[in-house]
Amino acid sequence: MNIEIKKSIKPVKYDVAIKLLEERVVEISNDKKSDLIWLLEHKEIYTAGTNYKEEEVLDKHINLIKTNRGGKITYHGPGQLICYFVIDLKKRKKDIRKFITLIEKTIIESLFEFNIKSFGDPKNIGIWVNDKADIKKVAAIGVRVSKWIAYHGFAININNDLTKYQSIIPCGILDKGVTNLKSINNQNYNILSDVIVKNFTKNLEI
């Protein structure tokens, strides 16, 4: 299947990215454009999904953007790889749960290529690792589906500032922490975006 791959070198403003995704949903539903996978980075911002609660904002001074994606509150910023997508599920099996599993599989397979073992959690969406006897989140997933077109995406923490998570209850989960790849295995992750594209496109073809 035809999938456009887009990579942005400079940080992209959150509202600009979401506007492009929403426009792409309309274009795909009108058969004017192909599916999209877009890799980028945001400047510091906190976003709240449709299921968030006010008490999950611990620092009331943060810049919080309310979104229409699923999930709760998360942080985006430098050192975090964001993979947005607009994927037509009508051309595949109309199965949202299967699509979420496909995303989880893509991240797990990609991190394994860097010798990092990670896993999904049926109760808590996202990708997790065992970090010094604690289970910590290394990747967040947020998806919205409109007319069987899935969009928004996932974010993988590479070497972002983990203290930023102290301002919120990340994804509404109190008893588990957040980590990044550099903390787990201090190596070069420059090709992670290419690995993600390779595995994502492969899994979408299955």
Number of helices: 4
CATH superfamily, please?
Bira Bifunctional Protein, Domain 2
Number of structural domains = 1
Kindly estimate the percentage of residues that lie in beta strands according to DSSP: 25-35%
Largest sheet: 8 strands, mixed
CATH topology: BirA Bifunctional Protein, domain 2
Radius of gyration: 16 Å
Instruction: Quickly give the CATH architecture.
Output: 2-Layer Sandwich
How many β-strands, per DSSP? Answer: 11
Distance between the termini: 11 Å
> Considering DSSP H and I runs of 4 or more, what fraction of the residues is helical?
10-25%
Shape: globular
Q: Any idea of the CATH class?
A: Alpha Beta
Model regions low in confidence, pLDDT < 50 over at least 5 residues: none
SS-based class: alpha/beta
Order of helices and strands: EHEEEEEHEEEEEHH
Structure commentary:
- With 206 residues, the chain is of the alpha/beta class.
- It has four helices and eleven strands, in the order βαβββββαβββββαα.
- Strands 1, 2, 6, 7, 8, 9, 10 and 11 form an eight-stranded mixed beta sheet that branches. Strands 4-3-5 form a three-stranded mixed beta sheet, with no helix packed on it.
- Helix 1 (14-29) links the parallel strand 1 (3-7) and strand 2 (35-40).
- The longest helix is centred in the middle third of the chain and has 17 residues, at 96-112.
- The model has no long low-confidence stretch (mean pLDDT 94).
